[in-house]
Each structure stands twice: as C-alpha cells, then as structure tokens.
Amino acid sequence: MKILMINKFLYPNGGSETYIFKLGEYLKSKGHQVEYFGMEHEGRIVGNRVDAYTSDMDFHGGSKLSKLTYPIKTIYSKEARRQIRKVLDDFKPDVCHLNNFNYQLTPSIILEIVKWRKQSNRKCKIVYTAHDYQLVCPNHMCNNHSQNCEKCLHGSFFSCTKNKCIHGSLAKSFVGTCEASFWKLNGAYKYIDKIICCSDFMKTKLDTNKLFSGRTLTMHNFIDKVDISKNADKKDYVIYFGRYSDEKGVSTLIDVCKDLPEIKFIFAGTGPLEQKLSGVDNITNVGFKTGDELKELVSKALFSIYPSQWYENCPFSVMESQMYMTPVLGADIGGIPELIKDGVTGELFESGNAVQLKEKIEKLYLDKAVLKSYAENCSNVKFDDVEQYAKKLMKVYS
Predict the structure, then answer these.
(1) Lowest CB count within 10 Å: 31, 139, 248, 269, which one?
(2) CA–CA gap between residue 177 and residue 160 (Å, rounded)
(3) Residue 251 domain-assigned (yes or no)
(4) Are residues 271 and 192 both part of a single domain?
(5) CA distances from residue 357 to 42, 272, 279, 297, 308 in whole angstroms, order as listed
(6) Tens-digit pLDDT profile for residues 185-198
(7) What is the per-residue pLDDT for 174?
(8) What value, to the nearest 5°, has the Cα angle with vertex 255 and ends 249 and 259?
(9) What is the pLDDT, as a whole number, of residue 58?
(10) Among 53-57, 147-151, 152-156, 385-389, whose mean pLDDT is lowest?
C-alpha cells in the first residue's frame, strides 16, 4: 500500500511529528511505501521523491511583506495545492493520512486530493488523525486564557475573535475565526473519510459537529514498550514531568507543593512557569529529560502527578508513568480518566481543585502499601505499541 503522510512540520517538533515518523518507519518495515508532504525546513528529516514542499513560514520572523501576506496564506494556499499535486501525480497514493495541516498547509490540500482523485480516476482514502480540537475550535485547545471553553463547538466561530482566544491577540484571533469560518462554509472537511481521535473525550467533542459524527473513531496513542519486569527501587519523592504552563495545572501544583514541605517533589521539564519553581525548597527542578534519564526518574518515583486543567487528549506522561510501574495521580479532565484505573493504577482528583489535590498527595504519600499495590497493578496495564496500533490503522486504510 502507498501511504502519503501529511503534516506541516517534517522535522522533530512535537507529538504529531513523533507519531508520523514512528508510524511511517513501522509501515515501511512491513513493506508499505511511505512518503511525506509538508513544509520545507532546514531540519526536515523525511520527504518525497519529487522534493515538493511548501515554503517555510516563520510566523515569528520574516520580512514585513511576508507578514502582510501570512493572514491570506494561512487560510488558503495555492502553493500547497500546487506542490502536493506534484507528489500525488508521482507517488499515486492509496491513502492520504492528514495530521496537523492548518495554517501552514491549509485545508486547500484536501481540495487538491479530491481533484486529483477525480481526474486520475483513482481511489485514495483521506484519513485524518486529530492531534487537537482544530476542526471545532480555532485556537485548537477549547481553552481561552486558561479557562476551558466550548462556545465555538455550537455554531459561530466569532467567539474566538471576541475573546482574543489565540495568543491574546485580536488580529490573530480574527484570522483564526476567518480560517475556521471559511472552511466550514467551503465544506472541504466532508471529504475526510475517517477521523481518528486519540481519546473518547475528543471524539465526543468532534461529534458535536454533525459533519464529523459518524466518521470518528477512537484509537488511543501508541507507546514504546519498556522492559521492566519488577518494581524499581522507589525513592522518597513525587514527580511531575512535562511542560511548565498554566493549562497543565503547574501553578496549582506549585502552590500545593509549598503547603507540603515534608514531601520532596522533582519537576522534569521546561516552560514559561520555570521561574516560579525557584525558591520552593522542596521542589528540585532537573530540567527537560528524555531517554534513560527520564526513565530512571519516573520509575523510581513513589508516584507521578498530572494536574492538567485543559482538555487533555491522550497524554504520554500518564501512559509512560504506568509503563514504568509508577502510579499516577491525575486530574479528571479530558482523556486522562481513560488512561488511569482509579483506585487500581492510580487515582483521580477534580481538575483545578487545590484542596483535593493536596489531600490526595498526602494520602498517597503516607500509604506506602496502597502505592505498592498500584505499582504492581501497573504491570498489567496494556497500551498499544506501534505494531498493534498499525494493525488497527490498516483496517481504517482499507
């Protein structure tokens, strides 16, 4: 089978890039042909045979002229249509697998895929993996200034402009409103055959739109299997690892940590709230960690905390903790409750509730027998690896 992976970034940048690279490599190992289409960049590590990509768009730099044309290019892109057509004519894919494409590539590419299908008389399925809420929310997160918001799920996207939902900017929010409104009226999304949602929660939000309802299915993210046959020797600390930001609930967690001076907390990550960690005696900030360093930190923790306050999709931190046999105390929001068996592999608390979070941390920290039980139960947790995920995906492609 020929699969064209489409994503605006073709270099390591975040979760969606990790997804397409690992998935693409596995599909290739099974004999499928995989090519990639997206934006050109000096860090690009995958591509296509005809070297056709869109121009690099730097929203934070670039010339004054380019900045003036960006609002138009982020809504509709003739260049993206022209470039993807080169790949379609050459590669002749059986499946076009869309990932993050808004703004840099735009939904224009969907129209070109449909046009190519008709003109070439070829069957080519269009599959989309939703890594965020872009199809129903212009700012992608259903979140406005650290407050969860669903106003755009029920009709007009003007709330995005009214409330300056995109980076607190009226101009950017207006462009986001125009982009979402244009493609809603255009109807390009009706050509997507299947929408893969990484949580049941995300599926319910996309299903609020009648156009998407009936085309969505849930497939939780895949994760690398780890070789841990027994509990690691636990150390006397609790860990948070991830981005240091308000929507992740980090401000709430830091305040709670201050009220629990007898407990040692390790924070592993980076983000805008990093300075807020300074001066908190029982917090050790070790910075961003990956690989064996992160594995050791997480596997030796008594438990990890995932205090998010936005509609999380399928956070790897929650999955990784349990894979390392470390229980999770997680917020009951978004897709998090789908990953934690409350009272079995960890516990849940009300998102944003500092009082309840403090009580849960104290209770777990003092009850080592319960923590040991939760850790042992984590050995029975089953998440798909890339092989299991790909087998399900092939049924979607067919």
Answers:
(1) 31
(2) 6
(3) yes
(4) no
(5) 44, 22, 21, 22, 11
(6) 999 999 999 999 99
(7) 94
(8) 135
(9) 63
(10) 152-156
Reported pTM: 0.91
The residues, any chain, with a CB within 8 Å of residue 148's CB and separated by 6 or more, are: 142, 309, 310, 311
End-to-end CA distance of the chain: 9
User: How many distinct structural domains can be found in the chain?
Assistant: 2
- How big, in percent rounded to 5, are the helix, strand and coil portions of the chain? 40, 15, 45
Q: Does residue 228 form part of some domain?
A: no
Tokens of 178: 């125009």
Amino acid at 208: T
Q: What angle do CA 202, 3, 118 make, to 5 degrees?
A: 95
Residue 231 lies inside a defined structural domain of this protein: no
Report the pLDDT averaged over residues 144-163.
88
Q: At 100, which amino acid appears?
A: N
Counted residue by residue, the chain has a size of 398
Boundaries of domain holding 354: 238-378
What is the rounded CA–CA span in Å between residue 112 and residue 108?
7
What average pLDDT score do residues 122-126 get? 96
Give me the torsion for CA of 152, 5, 83, 182, rounded to 10°.
-10
